[in-house]
Structure formats: C-alpha cells, structure tokens
Specification:
This protein has helices spanning about 5-30, 40-45, 50-75, 75-85, 85-100, 110-130, 145-165, 170-190, 195-200, 205-225, 230-255, 260-280, 300-310. With about 325 residues, the protein is an all-alpha fold.
C-alpha cells in the first residue's frame, strides 16, 4: 500500500481503542485464574475457560488487524506512538467496568491528568518529529542481529523474573514490550510482501520471526497482567518499550527519519518524556482493587476451608 498519513492515523486510533477494550477486560479475566510461571502454556489453558477472556482475545485480534493496516499506510514512527492511546481507552473502559460492578474506584484526578499529559506529549512528538515513511525492504542482514538481540534481552528479563520476586512484574513487562516492539517492526516489513500474495509473505523471514515474538509477547502480557502488585509500572513499561524499540529499529534499518535540528531533537525528547510521564500517571487506573469477584479460581474454596478449620461449629 502507498503511504497515506490520514488513513494511518485514523486506523491506528481505532486500533488503539479496540486494544484498550481488550486490555481492560483481559486484566479482569487473568485475575480469576491461578498464577503460572512465565511463558507457561498452562496459563492459556486456564484462561480459555474464561468467557470474558475469549471476548478480550476477539478484540485483540481485531486490534492487531487494524494495526497491520495502519502500518501498511504509515511509518513506524507515526503509528506506534498513536497505539499508546490504547492505555487511555483502557483507563476509561476499566473505570466504567468498575463503576458498573460497584467496585471501589482509585483516585481518578491524577489519572485524568495523566490522560491530558499523554495526549499533549504524543501530539508534540508527532508535530515536532514529523516522521518520514522510510522503506519496508526486509534485508537478510537484519535477521541475525535482530534475533540475537531479542533472545539476549528477553532471556535476561526471564532470568531476573525467575530470580527476583519484587522485580518479576517489571522484568516480564519489559520482555513483553520488547516482544511487541520487534513484532511491530517485522509487521511493517511484512506489509511490503503483501503485493506478492501468500507466496511473497511465506518466503520471507519476517513472518517466521513474528510467529515467535508475537505469541511470546502475548503470553508474557498475560503473565504481567496477573501480577497484583506493581501493576501501574508494568503497564507503563509495556506502553513505552513497544514504540521506543520499534521506532529505533525503523530509524536504524528502514531509513525512518525524525527532524534532527538541535531544537527539534530537544522538543522530541521533551515530548516523549512528557508522554512517558503521562503514561505512568494514567496506568494507575489499571490497578483493580481486590474483591470477591476478582479472586483467583479456587481461592474461595481455600478460604472457606480455612474458616471451617478455625470454626469448630462450621
């Protein structure tokens, strides 16, 4: 497809809305199943029995398709920052779901402030940076450093997650964000193969990289969403790592360019810092207060047994 900035912006914003819906309901469903070790397929086996999770998956698939379309129309440096808006949509939807369920609400004032700051930072980054489309040719020399870098970074994150309980959610979030960033990069490469049909897609290496990093990122996201503590920084890390890495790969290998005058660079850095600060504030809304409806499967039975053991009249 030819570059079409208005179409890319519109599709990316719609994709962000659908992905925000998916994130809001996905988070609720992951709290209802047993916590599993990172990258365990048993987590998916538990979740597939949750109707709410199946709805989240449907929304996630639709959002992914819209992301592919947006990347076919526009640059990585344009589309990926816009997808950060999924967090803003997720905040509103999560707030609405808690309101309907009669659950306690967090203090929303810093959250709405975060929404405003994120929007200003995003608009400033795109207006000042004015990203160019670049090219989408998948050269073979990209494959080895991409794979090695991905394996090293995610491997280190998994080692930290397994060895340090306090840092586990942060390490899983970073691994997820890296996976999503690499996935966005190879999706952009795949859009150049669409003209050749299925033969063009399946005879190029990006589809096979995506077949690994896409599912890995998805499972890591489910692991991160299960963590009951440090959930706000988890969401912030995923939301920031994805566009930062994908844009960096686009600049390095796809000739994506941002304005590079000293004033423009300063403005881009300040805008992105503002965007990151807004995400940190906004992501606080994802901390769902613990309640009976959110107890993991089996927790009620265990609690009941504990009460029975303590109460001789039970």
């Amino acid at each position: 497809m030819n570059n079409n900035t208005p179409a890319a912006i519109a599709t990316a914003v719609i994709a962000a809305g659908v992905l925000g819906l998916s994130a809001a309901i996905d988070q609720r469903s992951t709290k209802k199943v047993k916590t599993r070790e990172p990258l365990s397929p048993r987590l998916l086996a538990d979740l597939v029995r949750q109707p709410l999770w199946l709805i989240a998956i449907g929304a996630n698939v639709v959002g992914f398709i819209l992301q592919v379309v947006a990347l076919a129309f526009g640059s990585l440096a344009l589309v990926q920052p816009l997808l950060v808006c999924d967090l803003l949509f997720a905040v509103v939807i999560a707030w609405y779901l808690r309101q309907r369920a009669g659950e306690p609400q967090p203090d929303m004032r810093p959250i709405w402030l975060g929404v405003v700051i994120t929007t200003i930072g995003l608009a400033g980054f795109l207006a000042i940076g004015q990203p160019t489309p670049g090219h989408t040719q998948a050269h073979l020399y990209m494959l080895a450093p991409l794979v090695v870098g991905y394996v090293v970074v995610v491997g280190v994150c998994l080692v930290i997650a397994n060895g340090n309980t306090d840092l586990r959610p942060l390490a899983l979030a970073l691994a997820c964000g890296v996976s999503y960033g690499v996935a966005a990069f190879v999706i952009k490469l795949l859009t150049s193969q669409f003209g050749g049909g299925l033969a063009g897609v399946f005879t190029s290496w990006p589809i096979y990289v995506f077949a690994v990093v896409g599912p890995a990122g998805f499972i890591l996201n489910q692991n991160a969403l299960q963590q009951g503590t440090l959930l706000a920084p988890v969401q912030a890390i995923i939301s920031v790592a994805d566009p930062v890495l994908s844009i960096a790969l686009g600049v390095a290998w796809l000739d994506v360019r941002l304005r590079s005058s000293p004033a423009a660079i300063a403005g881009e850095v300040m805008s992105f810092l503002l965007l990151t600060f807004g995400i940190v504030l906004t992501s606080r809304a994802h901390a769902i207060p613990a309640g009976p409806a959110e107890a993991p499967a089996g927790a009620s039975a265990e609690a009941g047994q504990t009460r029975a053991n303590r109460d001789p009249n039970a």
